Amino acid sequence: MRRIRQLKLNTRSIFFKLLISFLVIILLFVSFNLFSLTFFRQSVRDELIKYNDTNMSNTTHDFEEYFQLLNSIIVNLYLNKNLRDSDSASIDYVAANHVIDDLRNTVSNPRFYLNNLFVYDIKHSLILEKARGASPEAIFSQLYTNPGYTYDFWKREFAQKVYFKMYPAATFTEAPNLSPVSQTGLVFPLMIKSDFYPDYMMLAFIDTNRLYKAFHQSINDNFYMLDNQGHPLFSSDSTSRHQLPVLEPGKDWIKENGNYYFYKKGEVTGFTYVNIVPDAAISSQIFHLNMTLIALLVISVLISIAVSIFFSMRFNNPVKKIVDSIRHFNEKNTLAKHTNEFDLIKENIGFMLKSNQDAHMNLEKKTSLLRYYGYMNRLKRIHGDPDEIHASDEMNQPFRFILFQLTFKMQFSQDISEEKERATYYIREYVNQAMGKELNDAHTFQIETDQILSIVYINDQTQQWMEVLNTIKHVLATDKDYFFFTIAVSDLYEHSSEQTSAYEQVVKLIKHRPFDDETRILYDEDVKEESFLLPGTMEQEINVNLQEGNDTLVLQTLRRVLKQMIKKEVSTPVFYRFAEEITDKVQRMLNSLNLETNQVAGSAKSIRLMHTTQELEQYFEMILNEAGRLIRLKKEEHDPIVSFIVDYLQDHYSEDITLDLIAGKLNITGGYLSTYFKEKTGTNFVDFVNEFRIKQAVHLLLQTDMKIQDIALQAGYQTMSSFNRIFKKYLGVTPSEYRRNNIQLGERTSAY
């Protein structure tokens, strides 16, 4: 009974459960492998057959490509200039020698696998080959001979109307002049003729062994090549000739007499290629594969069992100690006891971890809050309790301040303005995690609604903190459609007493960021105390044109000023002051004329929400268009003559308009009309007409794809020279330059 009880307790132990689990997994693994081995045995045989069939396909493809290449090379010989030069009534020996040189070069090319190449000149009864030229009788009877390929044999073959024919491989005897007799080895004779050149025939002798070694892809040497009629051309095994079985239609291989016969027929030559693989070879491969897999399976099972016992014991020992420790600490029975070790560990460890986590979170929260107040007191120069101040001095070592200034764009305010607080919270948490994960003792907290401050203590991590900062910049820049950041980095300070100076430095850096909407990292060397004064001539030009209501010219001048400011890299506050000064100038001008300024004043509230020169240009365009319209209306109001001229221009500006023409319609003299119009509008009649026409031309340049010549006619200018001259007078550039510049800037709206 005691043994049964002990055995029952042992079966509940972690060691026994782990060991049984491992053994079950091993059993499943073995069962699966045995099943797979049995199930896929036939598949292995099929794969081996498929492998040999693929090799046969590749071999056939290579042979066919070679014969196609050789045919092209030999056909090209018909076009050989030297061969054409030898085509005369008598033999041209110079040309013949050149042909011999060409044949020698072709034969010597190892890619062609040629032993020799003959050109049979029927007209002169002459054969040219790589070393000589001679009569057909001499060549086939003395110099290049084989009992089966005599001169009479070739004479009959040459007479046949066959243009591409391969003959069975044979060995020829070479007897070159002044050299000992030698054997060529096994070669394929290949005859090629052409209807276009009936006086010549080509006879190539292909080195069979080199060709076979280059293209035959199989571990078996039983390879056959048959011609179109099924007659053998070549056999790799000259001692054992196989009787090839008849292949069933639609099949590529057949098994017979203990061998696999793989057939492939060439698409170019029509030759049949046969590879013979003994069944014993495939069965041997399958047997070796089976034995290898079984051996690996046995070794794997033995290793798995040993590893299972080892890890079960290794895991059981510490777990047993943990269980003993839990039972020791749980003497007061605050938690229920369990016979199952896992349940006991789970409940007790979970309880202890939760208690420890609660205590740790409570302590961390108080410490973080104390540190935050300590930093804020020091940054804001608030004197507090000495112990509280000491909390911010815990890291008395070199440090840097990194201030993140968050700036929301108008797009964010329009789309998800109510999410600003949540967005700022998530950004602060990301910066906090990114800094704390890579940099030891880095502290991050929010000091304003749009400012996040990180304190980085430098401890041989100079390059590391820069890499982390660049990574943060890259992540923050991904949402550039809604907001951007200015990241200011202070100098390296040695003592925590300098934290106020570090904070003042990063705040100063923030104020001197470039005027754009890109996320940037600023260092002290990036701050340029660059002041900008508006040139006196430009200021006078702005005042004069604004007074006259010429908003077009004022806007053109402002654009030039903005370009100069960008070139000088002035900071954002300078851009804002400039925009506010222009706004104030417009308001004072309107006030002096007793005109309404509410729209200009309302628009001025959005200056600080602009972050690019494009936004400033749009702002200037809006207030100047309105101001110019009001000023011009002021000058034109209650004057029937001026109103008539404006209306007539609106309807007939593309026609020929002169001062005398308008005066005649009003029944007054041209001199009186000129003086009157100048007095009422402050502009000469001709200048007023040209300005009106240029406005229409600008609209057509930006809003249509019309040709510039057509736009000139549409605007009332009969010649391109007068149109270019007047356009450049008002806008400073030619019409084509104006269209190109505005398209490059992406501006598809008129500047007027």
From TrEMBL:
InterPro entries assigned: Homeodomain-like_sf, HTH_AraC, HTH_AraC-typ_CS, Tscrpt_reg_AraC-type_HTH
Pfam families in UniProt: HTH_18
Domain of life: Bacteria
UniProt keyword Cell inner membrane present: no
Domain HTH araC/xylS-type: 643-741
Regions crossing the membrane: 20-40, 291-311
Keywords associated with the record: DNA-binding, Membrane, Transcription, Transcription regulation, Transmembrane, Transmembrane helix
Protein name as catalogued: AraC family transcriptional regulator
